[in-house]
Amino acid sequence: MTVATSEDSPPRGLRNAFRAFGHRDFRLFWSGALLSNTGAWLASLTIPYVIYQETGSALLVGLVAVFQFMPFLVSGPLGGVLADRHDRRRILLLMQTGLMLSSLLVWGVVASGVRQPLVIMGAVACTGVFAGLNMPSWQAFVNDLVPRDDLQSAVALNSFQFNAARAIGPAMAGVLIALVGPSWALLFNALSYLAVILALALIRTRPVITPDPDPGRVHTQFRATVRYVRSQPGIVMAIIISIIVGALVTPLFQFTVVFAGSVFDVGAVQLGLMNAAMGLGALIAIPFIAGWRQVLSLARIVRGSLFAIPFGIVGFALSPNATVALIPLALVGASFLALMSSCNTAVQMIVAPLLRGRVISVRIMFYTVSMPLGSIVMGTLSDQIGPRATVLGAGVLMMIAALGLTVAKGRLQLGRLDDPQDTDE
Which topology term describes how it sits in the membrane (predicted)? Predict the structure, then answer.
């Protein structure tokens, strides 16, 4: 009998989780992104807060997501083509500069005293255009910074910084709003883009540009990419999960504003803590997601998270006060991180390298379309039947979806998330 040694065993735990930090360029990118995303989460909480304070309408809070994410429908496919045709670092430098300037526009509108919801949302839509162009290159760029063996760690750590920002940003937003007003939170967001721009300028990674298999028009390439996605069951499964999460879970990040104002009757600081709890839950989940990938398949991680997240949603809906709500919100944050990180990893591991940017843009497009649709529906229902009943219904629907995905067979079974990489050129 052969006794397994430490060299024979796959790396696991914290040691495996942080492997991507061994690469200088990834560390630079990660650090700049952490500061920038902290600012983005400041804005993500501040803008709905301003609109809800002015209108008291959950529907208008939901419309913020429409103006923020619907531009992805136009700019997202183009962003995918750019990510595959050009140096992703240069694309990111241009898009991050555009995001900084459009965020300064949002700050200028609010700081000047404008409170008309449509004016604010119009400024937010400008950031959505640049975000759609930016996101495919952003997610594909992680693959350029580390070798394939460290990709799971890099994707999870990228999610880690995003959720660390989600823990820090809303808490800062609550304090800034309470002490100096919402415009200062928006200014911090705009200036935070300087951090990631500096990091990108210092990165020395060589451009990864693959031969373009279809140099035609963007809409032609988009149709070809959709056909390719349909041929890959693992990628289809990741997109289906992203759509469900986008419609039923992601609206909660803005819905905390409604709960704080009309259910719990708390101020900006406690509102910030509610959103920070989701980020903290995600931070706790990171070692589990990244450190034990060699032991737990993506399908097993997703299956467990699909059943955990409805309990968090229902627990939030039934919480008697904002303090108790922190616990189920942390569970929502941890499960959300596990689901979205696993779906992103599955796509990156399966997709053929020459189509990575375009396929990522398709996943992002479906996800970002589901978010505003879910926000509108939840906002409308909240104004009619109340926030608690609306969120409770979302939790029930999420549990039904989890059951359906678990029993699905063939091309739609969760095990397809662990499909091997497509090597066809």
Answer: Multi-pass membrane protein
Among 372, 309, 310, 296, which Cα is nearest to 336's? 309
**Is residue 157 a contact partner of residue 30, using CB atoms and an 8 Å limit?**
yes
Kindly give the residue spans of alpha helices, DSSP state H, lying in 203-320.
Answer: 218-230, 233-248, 252-258, 268-291, 298-318
What is the pLDDT, as a whole number, of residue 324? 94
Domain ranges of the chain: 20-206+214-418
Could you say which DSSP state residue 414 is in? G
Cβ burial of 164 (10 Å; 0-12, 13-18, 19+) is buried
List of the chain residues with pLDDT < 70: 1-17, 148, 152, 163, 205-219, 287-296, 422-425
The confidence score (pLDDT) of residue 244 equals 93
Contact predicate 143/348, CB 8 Å: yes
Please state, in angstroms and as integers, the Cα–Cα distance from residue 308 to each residue in 302, 332, 337, following that order: 10, 8, 12
Report the alpha-carbon distance of residue 172 to residue 157 in Å, rounded.
22
pLDDT of residue 207: 56
Each residue of 236-274: pLDDT tens digit?
A: 999 999 999 989 998 887 788 889 888 898 888 888 888
**Fold assignment, 20-206+214-418:** Growth Hormone; Chain: A; (1.20.1250)
Give CA separation, 135 vs 75, 132, 314, 371, in Å. 10, 6, 31, 16
